[in-house]
Amino acid sequence: METEKKTQTAAEQMTDNDLSEQIKKVTKDSHVRAENTELMLSFQRGQVTLPQFKLLLCSMYEVYKALEEEMDRNSNHPGVAPIYFPAELARLEAIEKDLEYFYGQDWREKVVVPAATKRYCHRLRQIGKENPEFLIAHAYTRYLGDLSGGQVLSRIAQKSMGLQGSEGLSFFAFPGVSSPNRFKQLYRSRMNSVELTEEQRNGVLEEAVRSFEFNIQVFDDLQKMLLSVPENQLQTSRTHSTPVKILQIPGAIMQSSPLLRTLLGLFVALATVSIGIYAF
Fold this sequence. Notes:
The protein is built from 14 helices and no strands. By secondary structure, the chain is mainly alpha-helical. The longest helix has about 30 residues, at about 200-230.
């Protein structure tokens, strides 16, 4: 019995030392704050509109452009190489495809993002040059969060926005990943194997918190844009969809189904987390 307890204690200590577990712990409070932003709560209520989604895609385009360009540039860095999976995880081309679907071939001229998104991208560029190992925090929270809810979120988005077929939803698809659960295990294992000094590890943990803060700011700025810009102005482009619908879910169902609330909450994580709502 005593031997079993010692083995269990040793296993728990190893888990506690895992970088992935440490990130979850240090970002717990920030995660709660992100869930309670005004934009997040609107999604959790089951109200997803096409203008909201298009603005989210615009910000995601800029964020992933910065993240993936820095990941590519630092692909041989010892802090990046173990978690560099462009064939399986890269999102930029998928987002570009979605933006062209919604905005047309001149979509690049129509991309609009708030100041918070620009600050987030600036930070990604900065650490890519100065502290490439900090990219671990952003890649982990973004990619694994997006991977966790892709298929379910795609169906929710398709229904709530009245989209026809799967076009416009490439962002949710990971054709290079056959088993999300097994891949997430591999990714965490690779990330936990990265050799970091104590100073570097602390820096990565601080960067994970900073990632949440950037995303909270993006949420708030996107909400302000939605309130300040007339809806018809946000839709002055091709939509390839039926008239915009809002997915209305009775309050009783929302109260009685924690799983449904969680899934709807996951959708807004695509604006961040990056931040991912920790479905992983």
